[in-house]
Amino acid sequence: MMLLLLLVFQAKTNAQVDPAHCRYPLGMEDGRIKDHDITASSQWYETTGPQFGRLNREEGDGAWCPAGLLEPAVKQYLQIDLGQLTFLTVVGTQGRYAQNLGNEFARMYRLNYSHDGLLWRSWKNRLGNQTVKANDNAYTSRINDLHPPIITRYLRVIPVSQVSPTVCMRVELYGCPWSDGLISYSSPEGQQMLPPWFPFASLNDSTYDGVNEGRKMSGGLGQLTDGVIGQDDFLVTRQYLMWQGYDYVGWKNGSLSSDYVEMEFVFDKQRNFTSMKVHSNNMFHRGVKIFSSVSCSFKPHLLANWEAEPVEFHTVLDDRNPSARYVTVPLGSRTAKALRCRFHFADVWMMFSEISFLSADTVIPTQITPVVTSGFSNDESFMPTTHNTDKLHTITCPFCSPGIQTPLATSPTTIDLPDNRHTPVLIGCLVTIILLLVVIIFLILWCQYVCKVLEKAPRRILEEVTVRLSSSSDTVILQTPPVPPRVSQMDPPYERIFLLDPQYQDPAALRNKLPELSQSAEASACGGGYAEPDVTQCTPHQCFQNSVPHYAETDIVSLQGVTGSNMYAVPALTVDSLTRKDISVAEFPRQRLFFREKLGEGQFGEVHLCEAEGLPEFLGEGAPLPDRDGRPVLVAVKQLRADATNNARNDFLKEIKIMSRLNDPNIIQLLCVCVSSDPLCMVTEYMENGDLNMFLSQREMESNLTQANNIPSVSLSDLLHMSVQISSGMRYLASLNFVHRDLATRNCLLDRRLTIKIADFGMSRNLYSSDYYRIQGRAVLPIRWMAWESILLGKFTMASDVWAFGVTLWEIFTLCKEQPYSLLSDEQVIENTGEFFRNQGRQIFLFPPPLCPPSLFELMMRCWDRDIADRPTFEGLYQALRPHVVQ
Ligand code: ADE
Fold first, then answer.
1. Banded pLDDT at 161 (limits 50, 70, 90)
2. How far is the CA of 636 from the centre of ligand 1 (A)?
3. Catalytic residue positions?
4. How much is the pTM?
5. Which of 170, 267, 372, 377 is the most buried (most CB within 10 A)?
6. Is 601 in contact with 559 (CB distance < 8 Å)?
7. Distance (Å) from CA 695 to ligand 1 centroid
8. What is the pLDDT of residue 72?
9. How far is the C-alpha of 801 from the C-alpha of 786, rounded, in Å?
10. Helices (H) and strands (E) in the chain, counts
11. Residue 110 and residue 150: Cα distance in Å, rounded?
12. Which architecture does CATH list for 556-884?
């Protein structure tokens, strides 16, 4: 009876591995990988057997050493069985030190890997090299990142030595479980995009490890599962030294025998599929779009036929936003071991950079999962008799920190039921096991529930913010509750979301706990236009928002729009209420502006490059204009669209008012305005070299190679000089108690001489739309640059500008080749913000850019200090950075 019980173990797994964070030691050093899972081709002595090949351990004679001399033709290996499919990102090696008795080490090694222990493949790096540099001495460990990562269960480390014929090795592997379970995909071969109609791009799957026959790839994994997602512009790659289009696999419509791309996915076992996520490019102006529809068929076993009734999914095509994106395809909880999906073209090209699956493991009723833990039984009759291996399997603990494995064992392999020789004792034991399992599942579910409540915290805050943002059609307020006109008695304060801590039930208690929160209310009340005076030092004069009388709710308008991400409450402005004397620059006759080209565009306006006739004479002596050398004066003219909303108009006028008072070599200079009639215009200096993001992303680090080949490049000292200039401009804004709120490389412009000037152009919003997070389709927030308190509490201060400065430095030293936290979705970035708030060591920081001096990364880390008061000031940052600039 009991045996007929349906024993279905379901563990929700969401792959989408992030290689930057999937770097957990897998257990060689700490013994989670058991001795019997480490084998070798040979061993010199008992005391140098494979079980001694553990990094940083000194048991036995201190390492694994293969027998005999290592001739080039002889392949010796140390083999590790990880017990489950694993996403392997890093390998660490060491030689034999043995308290100074040993001096054997491998200078190089190769890696072979296998899903099943039968079919072995050789690992190659992205350039096709198989050998990896290992050690130079017997004691220092060397850590090598695997690019691409390996998805495998078995790994062989094969020492290669041309110098010394005796080698010994100690090894650690790093990675995380490959919970996707995908073991291969097949698809038509990726193609090349060719001029003249398109730019050159090679869109093949260059790391695919299966076979490629007749233009069809099968039996392997490759770039679509390497965790690297492509950029918005498919020509730009995240990998150094790689060709245009490297991150994507792409196909041209009409070049295949069908009008769709057919892909098959094979999994390690039967799974219950919830959804598939396909990261697709959508650069429609180059003929690339996400797929228009996809239809997926399912197979319960590899030898079965495809089931009738595929799942169909139609996407909403988007030819407004060219950002690459994840398209989530619901798979209706269908059970299968293999899937076949047909992706239909929506344009000339279709390009994918990553595909992942959300599924739950399924064990079907006629089979039973053996549960073998050391504490249960050693009785042979409980051990799998046929195709199971003899080892304990681990599952990832859903409530532990990632990578920690529980010894709770469930084998993914199913076994046949015991035959009828088995006695009632066996049944009794099984009943006990089932009951234990029920208890364990209950405990797991309970823990998951608790974790969820904790993890929901930042999301709830965001939801509340969202509700507030959308609660009134004309009002966008991102501020803490104490601002009287907006907070009804019914509105719960943000602090109430911390359900588990009674202190947090009471906002006052939270303020006591977090002194900085007590200022957030005033901070929000102190909202400004382009910038907001810092609350902590805001005088009535400087903090002009403070002078605003208590306004009626109906007067409050949104300032989200033309010029920035700034969202705050201000009374509605009219040209009358903002009198001419508020604007300290002159009105320029608009008929003397001659349009040359469009520089940018946003929701409510455009920036044009214009020739300004007679501007030097108009501005008079000492005007901040570059040398003209007899050429016409070029200016950037930001113009409000005729149909802009009142809010956008207010925003525009407010930005003019503030900009007209700013005067610093590293802040964009407002020269004159045209506001006496519509359309409203502001005229600023023209910055020939565009924005810093674009500038850096088109350059490489200076090297012999860039110099020899005339590749546009920048030096470390250029980058430091840029950083100093931005800190100087921000120091100036801070001296006026202005808060920028959207500091990022996209808002820094470069002139002819590469002087940087900070601007805040909402016009860049279209170009950089993926940098902004849209809340319920209304407000947009640059969340990847925002301090935790800005996201969670709506608190913007100079200290939150310092946070954004840290992110801007990070962008500079990655040459803007990557978006901050590029591997996290917007929602994950917000969840991470909650971790910054909780500060329990679970927050994910931006990684140190490879080119960045460690002292500079430390400075960045200080900008991201959880404690607002502990972050440096802009003056401090400027003083710290300035000495590094070569004069
Ligand atoms: N894009 C927006 N503003 C600009 C400016 N002032 N110069 C050059 N490009 C711009």
1. confident
2. 6
3. 742
4. 0.45
5. 170
6. no
7. 13
8. 72
9. 8
10. 14, 35
11. 13
12. Orthogonal Bundle (1.10)
